[in-house]
Amino acid sequence: MPGTTLSKTEMRIGILALQGAFAEHKIMLESLGATCFEIRQIKDLDSGPPDGLVLPGGESTVMEKLLRDSGLFSPIRGMLEKGLPVLATCAGLILLAREKEDKTPPCFGTLPVTVRRNAYGRQLGSFQEMASFQGIGPFPMTFIRAPLIVSAGETDVLAMTCQMDKPGGILREYPAAVRYRNQLAMSFHPELSGNPAVHSYFLRMAENAAFPSEGKPA
Fold first, then answer.
1. Catalytic residue among 25, 64, 99, 189
2. Contact at 8 Å (CB) between 189 and 213?
3. Catalytic choice (25, 36, 90, 199)
């Protein structure tokens, strides 16, 4: 199947672990040969920038507050602006989004999309669907209180989902996964799929990135 060839080069991946579903990402990436470390405070970045970063699902407003309170917001935003490869899922997508439909201020704002928070309903209404993911093929997408990408801007759309535009509205196709430069973001949870293809895609993306190496250990 396209996209399932695993990365052979060991990558050092940082996973934001302030809140949310980060453990499953770590398990998936380590199964592919990556070295992962959890980021909870500034000192976790003392060894230099990682080869890639994961912004997991969770509660975006809580995560943003913890990012700012911990002092991690500025160094992470700086790395993102320099091109640090990032995999952002669910709440992580909201953290990256340049615009929110409710007009609240963006967090990092590095991804040119507009998102609607909690567009897929409550956690009890979570669901999974199969969709085609560009470069991978059919992939099971798990949505849990997921944001909706209402405008994909300048990004490359990698997967689509069919959802109502509003409660009781009409069915429309919306982007479910997008890529913009070294940012890979999606409204669903690939770490819950049992399929490593999205994480393998991310590792290959990070391998091929021209991210600055200043400050990395020799």
1. 189
2. no
3. 90
The Cα 70–Cα 63 span in angstroms is 10
Q: Annotated catalytic, 173? A: no
**Is 189 part of the annotated catalytic residue set?**
yes
Angle 118-132-29 from CA coordinates, rounded to 5°: 75
Label residue 157 exposed, middle or buried (CB < 10 Å: 0-12, 13-18, 19+).
middle
CA 26/CA 146 separation, integer angstroms: 21
Active site residue 90: yes
Q: Which of 64, 99, 107, 191 is catalytic?
A: 191
C-beta of residue 56 within 8 angstroms of C-beta of residue 89 = yes
Q: Give me the pLDDT at residue 172, please.
A: 83
pLDDT in tens, 62-100: 999 999 999 999 999 999 999 999 999 999 999 999 999
Report the share of the chain in percent with pLDDT over 70. Answer: 86
Residue-level pLDDT at 125: 54
DSSP string, 79-92: HHHTT--EEEETHH
Instruction: Assign domain 12-208 one CATH number from 1.10.1040.20, 3.40.50.300, 1.10.510.10, 3.40.50.880.
Output: 3.40.50.880
Domain residue spans in the chain? 12-208
| pTM of the full structure | 0.90
DSSP letter, residue 123: G
